[in-house]
């Protein structure tokens, strides 16, 4: 447990130190009016308080990723905690800060527009397609995950819960952001914090021991012998770095009241998500007697079973159910904003105003039909494609932030270094994984390094 608290301490310290460094590099302007003030429309551009925007941002970005990902990552051993801490501080929180603040500076523009502004028109068109695919995958993943958990607690089957959740998504996507999201998500945020704190204390005061005590943090303990590189960095995305957040930050960029709040809302929310990821990774490393036992539980019922078993064991019947509901709320509150972001991206592309309900329906209905069709695909297959698409989006967003800093004569390495690393991760994974080309890991790694070097060379050819 000392290692867990040390990691949490590092994340909190980073918010007050490295977060300020990132803010100074960006150079905020507290006197500059934000999109919530200059483009208010009562639907998507709505001025809200910092506390509301922070909690909504946290719930938007914290879907199943910081729970399922760290549980799966725990199979590799304590090295998973290292990745969450380092990745969150120097990559994930930096990524979220720039995706949010660059959107603020671009009138609340969605991620394809932000990327296009700094990497060119071709990048914008690519991101329009890629972001929509990612958001549809996210929406589907964040339907199936909570539906399975709810089915385990009630006599209602998974298919029925899928239909109920989709119905809620349609409603939340169409109405003004302050009607449902602005009113209820802060309450859900309190439930999320209860779940996180409750499980932490449950672990502290239980007689459960780390199965990994005394083990080498750089040894791979995966029961199937799957390699840490590059799989761990795809498996644990939310909690370390996630491109999905780049699609969500513009939602709150349209509601933020002052640029000086950006560090708390964007960098800070990611730090808190990293802590949630650490909690579930620690639980995965602690609750079962070995990596093999954890793997068996996952195989028996996906990470949903692990969440159910741990919550009930540590917090009892009532407390466990409340904790599980917190885990259910996370993906649902991210899934609805995923579809909302998809609607706004399409609206931006076709220059359709979204103040009228009928124009929102023109976009939303086809999106939900397509999402429902994808939900029929095997969950494990959808999750793998989601993982790769998610981290690829993160790499592209980091390159866009680097281009902004480079062309502004600011210190671009704060985003360029994590962009290089994530590019190497996603290219290597695509070359190695079965959903990609299925090549040897050594050859795949060489291709990944070459891909990163190529991107760096193209980056330095950007015209000032």
Largest beta sheet, briefly? none
- CATH third-level topology: Amino acid/polyamine transporter I
- Count of helical stretches: 18
Overall pLDDT score:
86
Low-confidence stretches: none
What is the chain-wise order of helices and strands?
Answer: HHHHHHHHHHHHHHHHHH
Number of strands: 0
Net shape: globular
Strand content range: under 5%
Q: Assign the CATH class.
A: Mainly Alpha
User: What percentage of residues falls in helices of 4 or more residues?
Assistant: over 70%
Q: Considering the protein shown, what is the CATH homologous superfamily?
A: Amino acid/polyamine transporter I
CATH architecture classification: Up-down Bundle
- Helix and strand composition category: mainly alpha
Write the topology of this structure.
Layout: H1 2-16, H2 18-26, H3 35-38, H4 50-61, H5 65-73, H6 79-105, H7 111-119, H8 121-153, H9 158-174, H10 181-204, H11 228-235, H12 244-253, H13 262-286, H14 291-350, H15 357-374, H16 379-407, H17 413-432, H18 441-460
Helix pairs in contact: 1-6, 1-13, 2-6, 4-10, 4-12, 4-13, 5-13, 5-14, 6-12, 6-13, 6-16, 6-17, 7-8, 7-16, 8-9, 8-14, 8-15, 8-16, 9-14, 9-15, 10-13, 10-14, 11-17, 12-14, 14-15, 16-17, 17-18
Q: How is this structure best described in words?
A:
Its main location: membrane. It comes from Campylobacter mucosalis CCUG 21559. It is found in: Cell membrane. It is a multi-pass membrane protein. This is Carbon starvation protein A. This protein is mostly helical and 464 residues long. It has one domain: Amino acid/polyamine transporter I, CATH 1.20.1740. Helix content is 75%, strand content 0%. The chain contains 18 helices and no strands. The longest helix is centred in the last third of the chain and has 60 residues. The relative contact order is 0.18. The mean pLDDT is 86.
């Amino acid at each position: 447990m000392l290692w867990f608290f040390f990691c949490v301490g590092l994340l909190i310290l980073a918010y007050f130190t490295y977060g300020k460094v990132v803010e100074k590099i960006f150079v905020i302007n507290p006197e500059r009016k934000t999109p919530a003030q200059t483009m208010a429309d009562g639907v998507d551009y709505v001025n809200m308080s910092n506390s509301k925007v922070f909690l909504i941002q946290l719930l938007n970005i914290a879907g199943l990723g910081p729970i399922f990902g760290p549980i799966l990552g725990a199979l590799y051993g304590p090295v998973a905690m290292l990745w969450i801490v380092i990745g969150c501080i120097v990559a994930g929180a930096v990524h979220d800060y720039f995706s949010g603040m660059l959107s603020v500076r671009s009138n609340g523009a969605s991620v394809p527009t932000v990327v296009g502004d700094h990497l060119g028109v071709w990048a914008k068109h690519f991101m329009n397609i890629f972001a929509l695919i990612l958001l549809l995958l996210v929406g589907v993943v964040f339907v199936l995950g909570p539906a399975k958990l709810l089915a385990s607690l009630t006599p209602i089957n998974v298919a029925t819960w899928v239909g109920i959740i989709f119905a809620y998504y349609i409603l939340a996507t169409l109405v003004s952001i302050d009607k449902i999201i602005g009113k209820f998500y802060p309450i859900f945020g309190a439930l999320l914090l209860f779940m996180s704190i409750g499980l932490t204390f449950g672990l502290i005061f239980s007689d459960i021991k780390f199965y990994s005590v005394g083990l080498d943090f750089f040894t791979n303990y995966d029961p199937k012998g799957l390699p840490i590189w590059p799989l761990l960095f795809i498996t644990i995305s939310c909690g370390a770095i996630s491109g999905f957040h780049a699609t969500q930050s513009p939602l709150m960029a349209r509601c933020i009241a002052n640029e000086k709040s950006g560090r708390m809302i964007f960098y800070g929310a990611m730090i808190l998500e990293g802590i949630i990821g650490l909690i579930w990774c620690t639980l995965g490393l602690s609750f079962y007697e070995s990596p093999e036992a954890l793997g068996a539980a996952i195989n028996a019922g996906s990470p949903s079973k692990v969440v159910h078993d741990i919550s009930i064991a540590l917090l009892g019947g009532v407390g466990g159910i409340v904790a599980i509901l917190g885990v259910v709320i996370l993906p649902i509150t991210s899934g609805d904003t995923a579809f909302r972001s998809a609607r706004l991206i399409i609206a931006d592309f076709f220059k359709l105003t979204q103040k009228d309900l009928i124009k929102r329906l023109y976009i939303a209905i086809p999106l939900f039909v397509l999402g429902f069709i994808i939900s029929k695909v095997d969950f494990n297959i959808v999750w793998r494609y989601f993982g790769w698409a998610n981290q690829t989006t993160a790499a592209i967003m980091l390159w866009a932030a680097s281009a902004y800093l480079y062309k502004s004569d600011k210190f671009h390495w704060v985003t360029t270094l994590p962009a290089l690393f994530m590019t190497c991760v996603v290219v290597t994974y695509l070359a190695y994984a079965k959903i990609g080309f299925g090549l040897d890991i050594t050859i795949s790694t060489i291709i990944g390094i070459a891909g990163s070097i190529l991107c760096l060379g193209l980056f330095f050819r950007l015209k000032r």
